[in-house]
Amino acid sequence: MATTPSSAASQVLSPEPNAAQQRVIDRIATQRERLRARRAARAQALALAGRDPGLGGIDESLVLRAAGFAREHPVAVAAMAGVALVAGPRRLIRWAGVALPLLMRLKR
To answer: 68 in helix, strand or coil?
Structure first.
């Protein structure tokens, strides 16, 4: 009996994985499923919040945008906190007197 070329090729190209390989394949499948579920949950949360993920939070408040920036750029926030500690409270109050009116203009 002759074997077809496709069945012969599949026997050569895909041997049965051993136990260790199967565990790795199972872990990969589990991770992919977890990532799919995470993406779906995020998309659902964004849909419930009423915004498209591509918009980048146009209607978000300044506090929410600052929190998002802090989450995405922790090193920059740590550097700013270090500069604030070195500057001291008097300079911070002076800088806030200059920066807050500028931020209020941006908010409009």
So the answer is: helix
Range list of H helices, 1-108: 5-13, 19-49, 62-72, 74-87, 89-107
Flag whether the pTM goes above 0.70: no
Cα–chain center distance at 46:
13
- CA-to-CA distance for 46 and 106, rounded, in angstroms? 25
Residue 103 and residue 62 in contact, taking contact as beta carbons nearer than 8 Å = yes
- Residue with tokens 């199972």, as numbered in its chain: 26
The number of residues in the chain equals 108
Q: What is the pLDDT of residues 22-76, one digit of tens each?
A: 999 999 999 999 999 999 998 888 888 776 555 555 566 778 888 888 899 999 9
